[in-house]
Design goal:
single chain; 235 residues; mainly alpha; Tetracycline Repressor, domain 2; Arc Repressor Mutant, subunit A; 2 domains; elongated
């Protein structure tokens, strides 16, 4: 099976308008930069807070936003549900806080990434898979993807992740992507579809293929979307 655990629902990312993609990268990193939950914690509370966030990431990854509950998160963290409310107020609050780690890691990863248009396909697929195969980023991403259908904020985060971080930061310098919303949408559909089938639905043999084999097979498709001739030339 693929290394990132999970197996349930899927989502689809509506393509972001070209004018919005430049702002999406900043929106993705700023959207949840404010501290979720209450301030002024008592001494010794940090361990419980970490346990709650770890449990929340697992619950959202396995059950999605709709299926996860405050009681389930508290049970896994071995704390009273009232303590979850104390730190985060609501399920929405704990969800936002639980994915902050992946947002920070993804932003740092994207900021240091340079992609050349001539080899963009393989580079983007490789980077995308690295994020999913890394448990630190893969589990929260799984929670976002699994929740996107039923939870508005998750759907928004998925759109911002694809259009802002992947298309905006990584492919943002490609003139083809800058000038063509269709190309951007096709790249996004390929990447999200890959994540859905490999990590959520776990379709064989895709979920067992080594990442570099997927890069070799899928990279040329993404490359075509970036630089290929998408419309038939008039005779």
């Amino acid at each position: 099976m693929a290394r990132v655990p999970g197996d349930e629902e899927a989502s689809r990312p509506p393509a972001a308008p070209r004018a919005d993609r430049a702002a999406s990268a900043d929106s993705f990193s700023k959207r949840h930069s404010a501290q979720s939950g209450r301030t002024g914690r008592r001494a010794g509370d940090s361990g419980s807070r970490r346990a709650i966030l770890d449990a929340a990431r697992n619950q959202f990854a396995e059950r999605g936003y709709a299926g996860a509950t405050i009681r389930g998160i508290a049970r896994e963290a071995r704390v009273d549900p009232a303590l979850v409310h104390h730190f985060f107020v609501s399920k929405q609050g704990v969800f936002s806080a639980a994915i902050r780690q992946v947002l920070d890691v993804v932003e740092a990863e994207m900021a240091s990434t340079e992609v050349e248009s001539d080899n963009a396909g393989e580079q983007v697929v490789r980077l995308f898979l690295q994020l999913w195969e890394n448990p630190t980023t893969g589990r929260p991403l799984l929670g976002v993807l699994r929740s996107a259908v039923s939870h508005e904020e998750s759907g928004q985060l998925l759109r911002e992740f694809v259009s802002g971080e992947i298309l905006g930061r990584v492919l943002g310098k490609s003139p083809q992507i800058i000038d063509d919303d269709t190309r951007a949408a096709l790249v996004g559909s390929q990447l999200v579809g890959l994540a859905m089938l490999r990590y959520i639905v776990q379709v064989e043999p895709l979920c067992q293929l080594p990442p570099e084999e997927i890069v070799r097979r899928v990279g040329p498709v993404v490359q075509y979307y970036v630089t290929g001739q998408l419309t038939a030339e008039s005779g």
